[in-house]
């Protein structure tokens, strides 16, 4: 028999499997290398950008910019709410006065209730036959 034998087919399969494995390994190695190169390139770019920023803008500039923004916001707040800022004390005093007035009215209501109860008692006593005179 001059045709391919089973061992020839198996050898071709093994050879093909080895080629696929080699290709996978080379592909993985290439991907790892590309990722590493890309990471290094990004890190280099970040370092370059940081150095350019540091050379063009100082930290003091950022501090001044933040201070100016804080001043502008504070000024805006003060000017916008200046009419309302002083009214809190006035309203607090009015609330205290109102509370005192409520206490006074409550005590007057209690006195009126006492008077009504005493009048009712006197009326009951009078209607029971007693001619008692109410003196106040």
Overall outline: elongated
Distance between the termini: 146 Å
Give start-end ranges of low-pLDDT stretches. none
Number of helices: 3
Structural classification: mainly alpha
Order of helices and strands: HHH
Radius of gyration: 49 Å
How many strands?
0
What is the beta-strand fraction?
under 5%
Give average pLDDT, whole number: 83
Instruction: Tell me about the largest β-sheet.
Output: none
Q: How would you explain this protein's 3D organization?
A:
There is one protein chain. The protein starts with 5 loop residues before the first helix and ends in a 9-residue tail after the last helix. The mean pLDDT is 83. Helix content is 88%, strand content 0%. The protein is built from 3 helices and no strands. It is elongated, with a radius of gyration of 49 Å. The chain is mostly helical.
